[in-house]
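Subgroup meeting minutes
Present: P.N., E.W., G.H.
Scribe: E.W.

1. P.N. recapped why we're keeping a running log of single-chain structure predictions: easier to compare across weeks, and new members can see raw inputs and outputs side by side.
2. G.H. added today's entry (293 aa).
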Amino acid sequence: MAKKTLKKIHSILGDKEIYWVGDGFPVRTLFAYPNLGPLLSPFLMLDYAGPKQFDSADEQRGVGEHPHRGFETITIVYSGEIDHRDSAGGGGHIGPGDVQWMTAGSGVVHEEFHSSDFTQQGGLLEIVQLWVNLPQKDKLTKPRYQSIENEQIPVLSFANNSGQMRVIAGHYDNVIGPAQTFSPMNIWDLQLKADNMFHFELAEKDTAVLVILSGTVGIAGEKNLLKSAEVAIFERAGSQLVLEAMTNVKALLLSGEPINEPIVGSGPFVMNTAEEIHQARMDYQTGKMGHLS
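Output recorded in log:
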């Protein structure tokens, strides 16, 4: 039997600069595909919005009508409430613990705003939005909307009450997450208590990305500590990941089978060729992706 080896870090990323998406989402982009696309695949980008305290207001804050094609957006709410509406008829309300999984596919126009209650009451907003690529054969699939409520997501407790994991997509041991995906991937939402070690088994040659939202983590075989709003992208070789929580930690562990295809993106569109990007712009401008009434 082959000896299991640790995954080694390829890159550590982090962006402390905050920019606004619309007037509702103060965002840090923790990783993005233009520089590391093949290494990140099937993942494209991750934006971390907040934590940000909002005062009460009369008008809903957020981002208005805009298009997407060729990939999926996964929105995970830690605090706050968001309303979504799209041109394919998808939409809903997501609050703490909920996940919104939108497949843009052939093209969709959508908007995202703070909910009416959150707008009126104010409060803490903390959200992650992850972009996941679609294989070429599924780029123009029919748009789909999955509203995954907190209660639908299985929760696993680690030994000795040292933390827990929510399995949003993929599986952990025999526990299967509720999200439907187009390529094999795992999205694990972790809460780790300080002064504990955690061992994870990942598929050999899969992409692996660790996103630290808060706290500090040590990684076996590595000198550098990973801190809040930092990301470790791992080499494909190896199947073991061992973490030491130096403090209480909130994190996402992403892994998945790479999509070994060209990645060509421009703004809200991610396709395989420049010609397909041009077509996406034309289709949006001519209303083929629909509009919000």
